Amino acid sequence: SVAPPGFDLGVLWQAIGSTGALPLFNLNLITATFDAATDSNNQMAMLGAAQASGIKVRLIELGNELYWQYPSYLAAFPSAADYATDASKMAAAIHQQFPSADVKVAAVAASIPNPGVPRFVDWNAGLAALANVDALTMHPYPHLDAYVPDAEIENPTAATIPLVLAIPFAGAAQFAGDVANLPPSLQALPVWITEYGIWSAAKNVPFDKNVLASTWVVTLANTAFSMLLLQNARVDMLVNIHLANATSAIYQPYAIALNPAGSSAAVSTTGTIWSMFSNAAVSAQSIGALTFPSASTFTANGKSYPGLVGIFFAGAGGASALVANLTDGAQPVELASLFGTDVPSSFSYISASPI
């Protein structure tokens, strides 16, 4: 509800120039206007101003998580069908305004969690008449406290480890189910995951008591979750937006909360993993899943899970692989079976005590 002070298109232009990033615009459909061209708070005018300033307008989201039952969301879009009607018109207008640009417009679909919220449950079915969009955005957030007892969130033990490492498999399966259950009219659309992660805020555990959230095992789980989501053929984009405030945070918010006097905003273990993801994918043109049939497994709640999870990036500059070992022992990986004769000459390896 409060805009960051001093952040405008000029600042965005500087950030893009420093990073080389391609911006993704998420339009404000609640307190801004869309089709009143003379309004200074008009979103189409903002996109036009961005392009005029040299910012590439290529990726656009039509709103954020509008399936929540906030009064302002209900007032703007009483139902998903109302949103689908307006989003279809907005997408057509955007494509018309930027005919020469390779603009991709995504509409908002729901994913896990919160199946008990009525608007959330009915949202995707109400999008059946959606038109003119190029993708759907979804935010899969399996909750830590849905799989791990509160007592173990405050005081994790060795028994906690497999419970956490099973979450990415459950979350990826539920996400795949959500995608498969989209209306038939939307089945051809790719999915942008523009937020995601194993959500750490536990209902009954205070923020400063959530010891589990900042542990290496949660980073391993988020690493596996990232790989499993990327392996889904419908996923066209995966974005970690969390600089702080979540188990997928790039910096260390939980360490700061637990020990404010002795901590700084250092890169977290998850941030380190994301650096590895970035380096592996930077010049990639294709991506593939890695499977390890002979690898050891681990067990959680009586169910067996793969002990190794991997992803493979390939491009003109060569190939890269990322592999996560989710077991408590060393596992052999035959590099020639992954890369053929073109085995990379550089390796990075990270390991830590899980808790």
Going across the biggest sheet, name each strand in turn: 1-2-3-4-5-6
Uncertain runs are none
Can you write the helix and strand succession as a string?
HEHEHHEHEHHHEHEHHEEEEEH
Question: Helices and strands: which structural class?
Answer: alpha/beta
Features:
14% strand; 355 residues; 32% helix; six-stranded parallel β-sheet; alpha/beta; globular; three-stranded antiparallel β-sheet; 12 helices; 11 strands
General description of the model:
Helix content is 32%, strand content 14%. By secondary structure, it is an alpha/beta fold. The strands form three sheets. A six-stranded parallel sheet has the order 1-2-3-4-5-6, covered by helices on one side. Strand 1 (24-26), helix 2 and strand 2 (59-61) form a beta-alpha-beta unit.
Q: How would you briefly describe this protein structure?
A:
The chain is built from 12 helices and 11 strands.
